[in-house]
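Standup notes
- DV: blocked on the single-chain target, sequence here:
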Amino acid sequence: MPETLLIVEDDADLARALSWAARKEGYAVRVARTGREALEAAFSPPHPDLVLLDLMLPEMPGTEVCRRLKADPRTERVPIVMVTARGEEVDRVVGFELGADDYVVKPFSTRELLLRVRAHLRRAPAIPASVVSSGDLRADAASWRAWAGEDELQLTVLEFRLLHALVSAPGRIRSREALIDAVWGAGTALEARTVDTLVKRLRRKLGPAGQRLQTVRGVGYRLDPPQSGSIS
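- DV (later): unblocked, structure below
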């Protein structure tokens, strides 16, 4: 069964061109022209395998569509590639804060976009199916679930990948470049600030255990081992 792309784009010509190129690559395609149509299409089974999401949409902005998709258990793990003319760093940061997996600025190469799509679809099972732990932090890659003590954490896919990478090597300094490779995939071009934003979000969700997630100035981040006698 071919993988399904949901193309959310209000420009009819661009939507038609992307649909044609995606079908030529063997994908099944659905198209939504507004934010509300996008949610209806995404929540209707079978759910899409990936969403190409414009930000400037009628009825509902793409940022809100992204937020709702990532907040719903039916679609929270579906990769979202934002495709937009808004290319400022602040726009990229907001996109990644909302849980987007990639950000492509118009105008773009359709071929490059589809290569990114393929990379995200192949990347889904990249984390090994194993449970890693450090103190009271646990991350189970087989079920994509994580806990701080007895409390299950509500993490996005990117936050989970970041936690898994850090818990896998407590006490080890991970550069921003290494974390980009672990979270987004090798060769992904992102600003360092994107990693900083993701770390900040994860630290908040970890609660008291977030104090263990240390910034190593000028280098990257380190998850400190739990102190003796500490539960986290």
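- Follow-up: Residues 110-123 form the longest helix (14 residues).
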